[in-house]
Automatic annotation (TrEMBL):
<feature type="transmembrane region" description="Helical">
    <location>
        <begin position="321"/>
        <end position="343"/>
    </location>
</feature>
<dbReference type="InterPro" id="IPR020846">
    <property type="entry name" value="MFS_dom"/>
</dbReference>
<dbReference type="GO" id="GO:0015145">
    <property type="term" value="F:monosaccharide transmembrane transporter activity"/>
</dbReference>
<feature type="transmembrane region" description="Helical">
    <location>
        <begin position="170"/>
        <end position="188"/>
    </location>
</feature>
<keyword id="KW-1133">Transmembrane helix</keyword>
<feature type="transmembrane region" description="Helical">
    <location>
        <begin position="350"/>
        <end position="372"/>
    </location>
</feature>
<dbReference type="GO" id="GO:0016020">
    <property type="term" value="C:membrane"/>
</dbReference>
<keyword id="KW-0812">Transmembrane</keyword>
<feature type="transmembrane region" description="Helical">
    <location>
        <begin position="384"/>
        <end position="410"/>
    </location>
</feature>
<feature type="transmembrane region" description="Helical">
    <location>
        <begin position="137"/>
        <end position="158"/>
    </location>
</feature>
<dbReference type="InterPro" id="IPR036259">
    <property type="entry name" value="MFS_trans_sf"/>
</dbReference>
<dbReference type="InterPro" id="IPR045262">
    <property type="entry name" value="STP/PLT_plant"/>
</dbReference>
<dbReference type="InterPro" id="IPR005828">
    <property type="entry name" value="MFS_sugar_transport-like"/>
</dbReference>
<feature type="transmembrane region" description="Helical">
    <location>
        <begin position="451"/>
        <end position="472"/>
    </location>
</feature>
<dbReference type="InterPro" id="IPR005829">
    <property type="entry name" value="Sugar_transporter_CS"/>
</dbReference>
<feature type="transmembrane region" description="Helical">
    <location>
        <begin position="285"/>
        <end position="309"/>
    </location>
</feature>
<keyword id="KW-0472">Membrane</keyword>
Length: 510
């Protein structure tokens, strides 16, 4: 058996097993979907600040930036067509994730990851070869379909493959991969901006094909999760052998028994999207909407999509703005890696609350500084630009430590098997819906709200931090198939789901 870190059975219901090298390699390959997602996020913000790209596809924006001296600093990039390029990916992902739910449930997590990789490949090729706005946006749509499939399946895959003791750290590798993808995109944009002839943006868009190829090829060799196997087949011996292989021990009977029970319950559910509306699943339904919504209204996409544009707004040059985006991307990766190391020790709630306070404070200060130092024309001094960059890095650090990785981890671990694919689809759909809305409206909001945009998002951060404090129970180290325990013991949710099974039996009878 593959070696690894031991996971000892205990009174909290932990299963026997190890964090095997087999699981680590499989999860590293699956997390490549996060690299592509991050690359697509980062690349759009960079190319939309490149003058040759704007001149070719968004000439009105290019004219305002270069020639119109009357336009406010906050309004130079305000273009619905420009934001459509960025946000079209998320509209496509929104619809694709519901198709992906059926694929994930019927054919397995591996099938959805493979389809996601294939669409990524097609979208990257079309974007790199685009000669008009229609090809450009259609390429983004194909990338969005890939994101819809990958983001639906990869977090589930990671949570189901991981031993419960290490589930938080392993699942957080998805957000770490997203951060790595953003950083790679920012580095490539910084290099391609210097290409003579103005075609560097084509390299930036086409390079998404590299991680897409790795994901597509690697998906062919990925093992299916035991949870998916038991859901789709009655071959319990096959599931047991897979459990023994990934846990590194022959003693997997306790986990297998729980999987069999979860599978039998799952097979009685014919319409998971209808069943998730039942009262017994109310906490999971609320979290599947609230957590991705809050993750998007942190304002992180202000940085992820438009960091170079934001830095150009405060007066930095094209190259300096792209380099600043590289710095913020590196900070995000470092703090997400830290989150991976401590999330299963500190817990989910503590990180979310601490990160929320950190983001709120820095957003208030950045908004105040931009209001005091940046007018409608001109820029800020280099010293103040540096201060703003440092504050934004502290804000990104707060997100990387908390809402970035945990926004994907928590929804992927709270759903029982019978509604897991439907719940994850709702999570991804809500995430994409509000990613689209924020992405599509941000440049207009920046133009109208000006520095007040940071106060707007800061207010949401305060609300979501309070929500976590009052309504989100701690889920660390609890086996994924025993997660219903946290809702029955929570001060608020136990009033809805009940402290005993009578309510569940009555509801199922009706």
């Amino acid at each position: 058996m593959a070696g690894g870190l031991s996971v000892v059975a205990n009174e909290d219901g932990q299963y026997n097993g190890k964090l095997t090298s087999f699981v680590i390699l499989a999860c590293m390959m699956a997390a490549m979907g996060g690299v592509i997602f991050g690359y697509d996020i980062g690349i759009s913000g960079g190319v939309t600040s490149m003058e040759p790209f704007l001149k070719k596809f968004f000439h009105d924006v290019y004219t305002k930036m270069k020639e119109d001296k009357e336009v406010s600093n906050y309004c130079k990039f305000d273009s619905q067509l420009l934001t459509s390029f960025t946000s079209s990916l998320y509209v496509a992902g929104l619809f694709a994730t519901f198709i992906a739910s059926s694929v994930t449930r019927t054919f397995g997590r591996k099938a959805s990851i493979l389809l996601g990789g294939a669409n990524f490949l097609a979208g990257a090729a079309l974007g790199g070869a685009a000669f008009n706005i229609y090809m450009l946006i259609f390429g983004r749509v194909l990338l969005g379909v890939g994101v819809g499939f990958a983001n639906q399946a990869v977090p589930l895959y990671l949570s189901e493959m991981a031993p419960s003791k290490y589930r938080g750290g392993i699942n957080n590798s998805f957000q770490l991969s997203v951060g790595i993808g953003v950083l790679i995109a920012n580095l490539i944009n910084y290099g391609t901006e210097k290409v003579k002839g103005g075609w560097g943006w084509r390299v930036s868009l086409a390079m998404a094909a590299v991680p897409a190829f790795i994901l597509t090829l690697g998906a062919l060799f990925l093992p299916e999760t035991p949870n998916s196997l038991i859901q789709r087949t009655n071959d319990r011996e096959k599931v047991k052998r897979m459990l023994q292989r990934i846990r590194g021990t022959d003693d997997v009977q306790a986990e297998l028994d729980d999987l069999i029970v979860a599978s039998e319950t799952s097979k009685t559910i014919k319409h998971p999207f209808k069943n998730i509306l039942q009262r017994k699943y109310r906490p999971q339904l609320v979290m599947s909407v609230a957590i991705p919504f809050f993750q998007q209204v942190t304002g992180i996409n202000v940085i992820a999509f438009y960091a170079p544009i934001l830095f150009r707004t405060i007066g930095l040059g094209e190259s300096a703005a792209l380099l600043s985006a590289v710095v913020t991307g590196a900070v995000g990766i470092a703090t997400t890696a830290m989150s991976m190391l401590i999330v299963d020790k500190v817990g989910r709630r503590g990180l979310l609350i601490f990160g929320g306070i950190q983001m709120f404070v820095t957003q208030m200060i950045v908004g105040g500084l931009m209001g005091a130092k940046l007018g409608d024309h001109g820029g800020v001094s280099k010293a103040w630009a540096f201060v703003i960059l440092v504050l934004i890095c502290i804000y990104v650090a707060g997100f990387g430590l908390s809402w970035g990785p945990l926004g994907w981890l928590i929804p992927s671990e709270i759903f029982p098997l019978e509604i897991r694919s439907a719940g994850q689809s709702i999570t991804v759909a809500v995430n994409f819906l509000f990613t689209f809305l924020v992405g599509q409206t941000f440049l207009a909001m920046l133009c109208h709200f000006k520095y007040g945009i940071f106060f707007f998002f800061g207010g949401w951060v305060a609300i979501m931090t309070a929500f976590v404090y009052w309504f989100l129970p701690e889920t660390k180290n609890l086996p994924i198939e025993k997660m219903d325990k946290v809702w029955r013991e929570h001060w608020f949710w136990k009033k809805i789901v009940g402290e005993n099974v009578e309510l569940i039996i009555k509801e199922e009878a009706t």
